[in-house]
Design goal:
The complex is a heterodimer of chains A (321) and B (282). A 6-stranded mixed β-sheet of chain A has the order 5-6-7-3-8-9, sandwiched between helices. Chain A has a 3-stranded antiparallel β-sheet with strand order 2-1-4. Chain A has a domain of 90 residues. By secondary structure, chain A is α/β, with parallel strands linked by helices. In chain A, strand 8 and strand 9 form a beta hairpin. In chain A, helix 11 crosses helix 12. Helices cover 37% and strands 26% of the residues of chain A. Chain B has one domain. Chain B has 11 helices and no strands. Chain B is elongated and about 60 Å long. Classes of the chains: A alpha/beta (321), B mainly alpha (282). Chains A and B meet through helix 2, helix 3 and helix 4 of A and helix 1, helix 4 and helix 11 of B.
Chain lengths: 321, 282
């Protein structure tokens, strides 16, 4: 790999395949994440998100395909490579007896030999505690934290080494809305202020839309869409369903240009048009349609193309009929 | 791994060992846990203080106390190490270590320090009242201290790595009985509660295959007067045999542990911890 590509791309996944025995969970996954980008790996449960992220973290061996994280194959990543990554784990009760600040300082000390001219490792522990809102809890034992506080500590541990790439696997599962909002603000701050490359998995479209520069939709071990939330939304806008009644008869039509269609409809029939309804597919409709199409396809036969608006409109018709 | 990184990992591991030992000493639950076994064993030994071994005039209480120090070593080395490893795999501590650079090295060093400290503290808790309360139990010569020191060090080396191997091979802390019950059976036949020479010969051979017997013998040889050796196999403390047997177990453990630990660590992942969490919650 040339130095240029390595510098621009944080993550490169080419034809990644994973099987457990006879069960295939990833069928040739391809995607790239540029430096400083925030990408959400979105998909329903069992789509292969966690498997993918664990392969990238170097915690799981892949069956086939090429994977590069910061230019290194995670299967052979050494400790200096590991020092440039951050992994936010779903902690449960580890290190329960350790005081919060002591644990963070201790864990961070492992990163000290990996400081570079550009990046100081580890972060200042007190600043970090303040950033995640745990200053008051610094002397408390980890086991005494509330669920939300504990999760913020997980994030603090994940970023104490000033990672260049941060992995977040289902970061907000089990959060109440307030904790979720705080967490989202924290992630956005990391991405904006620190320019950290972030790959997160979620099954929550809303979360993906809020946080990510780009959404990669994974369903049944395949990528069914890979675009910015705006692009996804634009593809959706291209599809809408118009319904009306004229002379007691019901009409339904799908169109990519609903505004023009309605204008022409009135031009042609004027006051005869009654009970007009224009229903735009939402981003969620599109997402659900993609997942639905992928999941009903026999091992991917007849999968929609990237962001297929047709699938979305069909879904709309289905929903509203 | 560069030299500075290695030095950092070692330093960090030493710090973790120190911190966790301090935590144990300041936690009521941990202190009670550490005290419980020595106190029970001390009571057992005290109750037997009056009787002597098969009319030899040697106090059964004194030999029992010395043997119990060997038992404590074996218990801390096998059961406690295996159990801690299982617990910390389940609760995600190990995965946390794996996610940091050189985290595993630091984790292992920390665990070794903590386990060794726990063993030494428990030993001291038995030894101090032992020397004061039991006739014949004494540490009044350089030789006795020397024997005590090498039996302790070699004893930890012979048990802790094997404990780590057992902890890596088992899948859940709830399976700890697989280690516990054979260990209890071994305690029964290893000459700790009665001289092994009173057992049938085939049982003596079984006992001598495992390190528990040698840990007990080593402790007796350090703490008891030489006359007590009369009830041992071969009427001798058999220092050389003790050294060789414990050394062989240490070598086996140190050979196996890195391979098994590495294999176990490689399999640790977020979803593995999550599965165990779900299993434990049920």
């Amino acid at each position: 790999m040339s130095a240029d590509t390595a510098a621009e791309l944080a993550i490169e996944v080419t034809d990644l395949r994973m099987s457990y025995g006879s069960t295939t969970v990833l069928h040739g996954v391809n995607f790239r994440v540029a430096r400083g980008e925030v990408v959400a790996l979105l998909g329903p449960n069992g789509a292969g998100k966690t498997t993918t992220i664990e392969i990238l973290e170097g915690f799981r061996m892949r069956s086939a395909g090429e994977v590069r994280v910061l230019g290194t194959d995670p299967a052979h990543g050494d400790e200096s490579w590991r020092a440039r990554l951050g992994v936010v784990l779903q902690s449960w009760r580890d290190h329960a007896k350790w005081p919060v600040r002591e644990f963070l300082a201790h864990y961070g000390s492992l990163y000290a030999p990996y400081s570079t001219e550009r990046i100081t490792r580890p972060r200042d522990v007190d600043e970090l505690l303040e950033a995640v809102g745990l200053t008051e809890q610094a002397g408390r034992r980890v086991g005494q934290l509330s669920g939300g506080q504990r999760r913020r500590l997980d994030v603090a541990i994940g970023i104490v080494g000033s990672p260049e790439v941060l992995f977040l696997d289902e970061p907000t599962v089990g959060f109440d809305p307030e904790a979720r909002q705080e967490f989202h603000a924290l992630v956005r701050r990391l991405a904006e202020v620190e320019d950290t490359t972030i790959l997160l998995t979620t099954h929550d479209l809303d979360e993906a839309e809020r946080l990510a520069d780009r959404i990669v939709i994974l369903a049944r071990g395949r990528i069914v869409a890979d675009s910015t939330p705006e692009e996804l939304a634009r593809q959706v806008e291209a599809g809408a369903e118009v319904r009306w009644v004229r002379d007691g008869e019901r009409f339904t039509t799908s169109t990519r240009t609903p505004t023009r269609f309605v204008r022409e409809l009135f031009a042609a029939h004027g006051a005869d048009v009654d009970k007009l309804e224009v229903r735009r597919a939402t981003l969620e409709d599109t997402y659900l349609a993609m997942v639905h199409a992928a999941e009903s396809g026999r091992d991917g036969a007849g999968l929609p193309e990237l962001g297929a608006p047709r699938a979305a409109v069909e879904r709309v018709a289905e929903v509203s009929s | 791994m560069s030299v500075t990184a290695t030095a950092t990992a070692v330093r960090s591991g030493l710090a973790a060992g120190r911190i966790e030992t301090r935590q144990s000493l300041s936690s009521v639950q941990d202190v009670l846990g550490m005290l419980f076994i020595p106190v029970v064993l001390l009571v057992v030994a005290l109750l037997r203080r009056g009787s002597d071994i098969g009319g030899t005039g040697f106090s059964l209480g004194s030999t029992t106390l010395a043997g119990l120090l060997g038992l404590t070593l074996a218990f801390n080395g096998f059961q406690a190490v295996a159990f801690n490893l299982l617990m910390e795999r389940e609760d995600g501590t190990l995965l946390r270590a794996k996610a940091a650079p050189n985290g595993m090295v630091a984790y292992l060093i920390g665990k070794i320090i903590h386990s060794a400290a726990t063993t030494l503290i428990t030993t001291a808790l038995l030894l101090v009242p032992g020397v004061l309360l039991f006739d014949g139990v004494r540490l009044d010569s350089v030789g006795a201290w020397f024997t005590l020191a090498w039996v302790l060090v070699l004893g930890m080396l012979a048990t802790m790595p094997i404990g780590a191997v057992l902890g890596s091979l088992l899948t859940s802390p709830r399976n700890i009985g697989i280690v516990m019950f054979p260990l209890l059976a071994l305690f029964g036949v290893s000459g700790i509660f009665f001289p092994v020479t009173e057992a049938p010969e085939w049982l003596q051979w079984i006992a001598q295959v495992f390190p528990v017997y040698w840990l007990g013998l080593g402790m007796r040889s350090a703490l008891l007067p030489d006359e007590f050796a009369a009830v041992e196999i071969g009427d001798s403390w058999r220092y050389v045999e003790t050294f060789c047997a414990l050394g062989a177990w240490a070598a086996l453990g140190l050979l196996l542990a890195p391979v098994v630990l590495r294999r176990m660590a490689r399999k640790e992942s977020g979803s593995a911890v999550e599965e165990r969490r779900k299993a434990a919650m049920q």
